Amino acid sequence: MAAGETAWTTYWHANRLDSCIVRPGQQDDDQKAIFDFWRTFVSGTPDGGQILDLATGNGAVALRLVEAAVELGQDISVKAVDLADIRPEIFLKEYGDLIRLIEFEGQVDICDLPFSDQSFDGVVSQFGFEYAPPVSAVAELARVLKPSGTFQLLVHHKSGALVAPNVAQVNEIDTLLQAGGLVDCIQGLLAGTVRMEQLEAEGRRLLQLYDNQLPRITAEIFAAVRQLLTRQDLDLIVRAEGATDMRRRLEAEQERMRQLGDAALAENDAADLRQIMAEAGLRDVSYEPFHVGADQALLGWQFAGRR
Ligand SMILES: C[S@@+](CC[C@H](N)C(=O)[O-])C[C@H]1O[C@@H](n2cnc3c(N)ncnc32)[C@H](O)[C@@H]1O
């Protein structure tokens, strides 16, 4: 599996529903706006219709589609695919009942879909479509849509509220992983090659670097280290494994953030994507910024159209 897929597989196996769509402190407003966005799509899908969710992750959109259909008294079925080795039915236990209504398939590239031509009434994607090469992904979207079938996508916006904070974490993780940095200190401490004073000195250096306000991941690591060190019941091997796992998770997180920054569309990229869709024969293609919350924050681009 390539590094990118591994990063997402690690992420989705950690029991998460959404990837990055909720702004801290704005959870309810953002969730409502997003639910309404997908609910509107369901209400325009014919009863008995089948919808395909591309790059589904752990099925955040697929779940919203099913919930909306139940609310609207509509009968729809949902298929959901992702390149990562997703297993929402195993890892997302709390949504078990709804998840069973969706057919998930992992290790599926949206540029090479295992479905016959004209098989879906609707195709959707949320912060996933833009991760794939656009010409092939659009060609596949157009191929699997039934005539007059519709599509709706939410994609990352380069200036959107989600992109900058996530991309900033790439640098934060670089600092944590640098030679002699916090993660090295923790591993060394557990291996007996680094003294506690060196770890404390690294802590002071980071506090100074961040003006006494440790950013989220760094603060979480300090909390985890405190816990790891106080667990005298754990033998040294288990504690050392904990530190190695920390490095692996940070590398995966950094890879995900890098991909997000690369995938996000600026105005000209959005115009190009629209053009690619029109050239693939998709009709009535529109795109516009998608805003959420009382502060009308820019969250992404919304694309819509039909075959
Ligand atoms: C930001 S997550 C979005 C997941 C989900 N739609 C959500 O809103 O929570 C991006 C997803 O795109 C998937 N992905 C990236 N490239 C892909 C491709 N070529 N084919 C299928 N999935 C892909 C990744 O594995 C990841 O799960």
Automatic annotation (TrEMBL):
Q: What is its EC number?
A: 2.1.1.-
Enzyme class label: transferase
Its domain of life reads Bacteria
Q: Which GO terms describe its molecular function?
A: methyltransferase activity
Domain named Methyltransferase type is located at 52-151
The record, for CDD domains, names: AdoMet_MTases (cd02440)
UniProt KW Transferase keyword: yes
**SUPFAM superfamilies hit by this protein:** S-adenosyl-L-methionine-dependent methyltransferases
Instruction: Cite the entry's keywords alphabetically.
Output: Methyltransferase, Transferase
Cross-referenced InterPro entries, in alphabetical order?
Methyltransf_11, SAM-dependent_MTases_sf
One GO biological process term: methylation
**What is this protein called in UniProt?**
Class I SAM-dependent methyltransferase
Where does this protein come from, organism-wise? Kordiimonas lipolytica
